Amino acid sequence: MNAKKIITLLLAAVLVLSLAACGTKPAENGGGDGEPQTLEEAKTLYDQLVAQENAIQAENTELWEKVFLSADKGMGMMEDGKNYGEFLLSTIEAAKEQFTDEEYELLKEKATEIKNIEDRLAALEEKFPSLSETPAEDGSMSVPAGSDKTTPPDDGSMQKFPAFEGKDLDGNTVKSSELFAKNAVTVVNFWFTTCNPCVGELGELDALNKELAEKGGALIGVNTFTLDGDETAISEAKDVLAKKGATYQNVYFASNGEAGKFTTNIFAYPTTYVVDRNGNIVGDPIVGAITEKKQAEALQAQIDKALSADRG
Questions:
Q1: Which helix (H) or strand (E) covers residue 274, if one does?
Q2: How many domains does the chain have?
Q3: Number of CB atoms found within 10 A of residue 294's CB
Q4: Do 185 and 287 fall within a single domain?
Q5: Does 189 score more than 80 pLDDT?
């Protein structure tokens, strides 16, 4: 999967795979009553609905990007129980003056279609909970990033950050198992080069990395444009990092691996995870820039939790 095919939307970007949208067929229900009766039927319908949503988002990309570049950089994808489609509708309404009447009506129509799809996806997830889970490399189940189902299972187990073997932007090999094991806590920040809130927090992230180093931790970045080792994207990312004075390690990996699939399920940028020495994700992802007080406090609380647990 070519990283250049990633469409940028929501908080200056929603990542969707335009390749997945090609040849999309209308979703068909499985059961005689119009609803799937088995998990297999539900999964087929679920995948078709996701493909339809991706296809909608892959159209009129300049308009979508204009909408989300106007969004509050500290705003999460979903607020007050809204689904993603409702979030889109409210964001479009807030940016209404930036569009012609025709553009505004088109965006509202498409956002409403997405809302209806999201309602159906939520109903399927409620009936078949395993639809919202993806298998991790170790065989355990992990919830897609960006989902609101990120709390640990009731059995006390923790969600693993997907394993990867990749490289940093200087070409050095990086293995997640070694990376996490040597740090009391690792903060993993997902960003991309043309995301204004992402770039805006690079200085704060660099300062945080220096603080973590004194406590036996580290911060790494994952620029989604650099997946699969895209040379142009790597060069651009390095240039942006240098201009912002950010010297912490940034890594990339294959887009078709488990970590790559995990990345494509992140729907709001920037998004930041806290990972402990054993590769477990600590708490919920931090959605939005840490230049915002709420996000900064939440991130610090998770870092403190991981450090405290590491000390035993």
A1: strand 271-276
A2: 2
A3: 12
A4: yes
A5: yes
Summarize pLDDT for 125-159 with one digit per residue, the tens. 888 887 754 333 333 233 333 333 333 343 445 78
Which of 83, 108, 132 is the endpoint of a domain?
Answer: 132
298 pLDDT tier (thresholds 50, 70, 90): very high
Same domain, 98 and 221: no
CA-to-CA separations, 57 to 10, 101, 114, 275, in angstroms, rounded: 10, 20, 9, 31
pLDDT score, position 49: 87
Based on the fold, state whether residues 163 and 278 are members of the same structural domain.
yes
Indicate which CATH number applies to the domain containing 233: 3.40.30.10
Q: Where is average pLDDT lowest: 7-11, 91-95, 187-191, 293-297?
A: 7-11
Domain region containing 186: 138-311
- Indicate the residue type of 109: E
pTM of the full structure: 0.58
> Which own/partner pairs from 74-81 qualify as long-range (CB within 8 Å, at least 24 positions apart)?
74/197, 74/288, 74/289, 74/291, 74/292, 74/294, 74/295, 75/11, 75/288, 76/268, 76/287, 76/288, 77/10, 77/11, 77/146, 77/267, 77/268, 77/287, 78/148
Tell me the C-alpha distance between 253 and 238, whole Å. Answer: 16
